[in-house]
Input
Amino acid sequence: MKISIVGAGYVGLVSGVCLSAFGHDVTCIDNSSEKIDMLNSGKVPIYEPGLEELMAKNVALGRLHFTTDLAAAVASADAVFIAVGTPSRNGDGHADLQYVHAVAADVAKALTGYTVIITKSTVPVGTGDEIERIVHETNPKADCSVVSNPEFLREGAAIEDFLAPDRVLIGAEEPRAIKVMQDIYQSLDPDLHPLVITSRRTAELTKYAANAFLAVKLAYINEIADLCEQVGADVQHVSLGIGLDSRIGKKFLNAGPGYGGSCFPKDTLALLRTAQDHDSPIRVIETIVGINETRKRAMARKIERAIGGELRGKTIGILGLTFKPNTDDIRESPALTIIQALLDKGAMVKAYDPAGMDAARSAMPGIAYAESIQAAAKDSDALVIITDWEEFKSLDLKALRPVMKSPVLVDLRNLYNPAQVRESGFAYHSVGRS
Output
């Protein structure tokens, strides 16, 4: 099939590359000529393991293209994916749909023949209805269907998630639109990777409901971790004990500094606003959003206690700036809030991250950036692990101890065995463990 994807950001680029791997002829469209030039030169503007190699393979096979010419790409397409950003709107927390609406109008002008318009962006319930209205208002003669096909990609594992998904959710009611969607995903074994066909509004809501539920699990285990510290229990054993229950599951039960990233913060907030607008508030999610916000600054207070209660004039080495490993994404990362809280209390901060420092430099110009773990630890009063990158799981503590001003390790991801760290001569502080 000939497929066009409007938006060559994280979701659009990963989707485009993977759809071309399915054998489709895919054109990724973006209004940034700089980004398109980069892609046409074989470079990817994001950090995602395996993406550059898979992109190069499908470009070489002649089935993956990049352009700024939306009209030409849409005119020849059987299906058009909308994959532009939907950030939180300033002032009220609703999803900002201005880019989705603008693309819908541009796509409408370029349509020729029957085309399926597919929303890949995360959008509130009813957005498909509005896209349909915009398309037919812009081009009354348009022959098209509007479908919801939300993404469920984990940064750092996005290619695997797309090529071998838990499920593919399709919100469509017209038989010919459903047929096109089935053709798009025909490479997937339906027994292993089921296509779930539902109404458009149901699909839109399911995306938000899924992300909000995962956020609930994360916030819940963090609350349990705090209780563990007070009563002398071990949150990792609690997590294992409840996670082995098949009704609960083990994933998203790791205590830490709070959730971040491009999805959970904005999606939980957008779900809250949608629920409030429909006079059906979701009290659980309202509470979770508050818990997560206070969680991050609470981690700064944990660091303060770890070095004796006074941060002013102290140097803190930070390991990890991205919201999770295997990505360069620092959006809503707990590290941003924690570092700002440390700065507010007079600390000096040196940070190291394997992939996120370029993005962090513009967001946090007031800190020092180290080129290695050793450099972050040098002359520090404490070393703090915020992101669980693989290379932070095997620190050479015996080599780090002599270069630090004070051998204090604050492990906000519970990567280490407390007894072993203390045997290396460190004061060790983790989350939810006495």
In short: The longest helix spans residues 200-231. The two ends are 57 Å apart (CA to CA). The first strand starts at residue 2 and ends at 6.
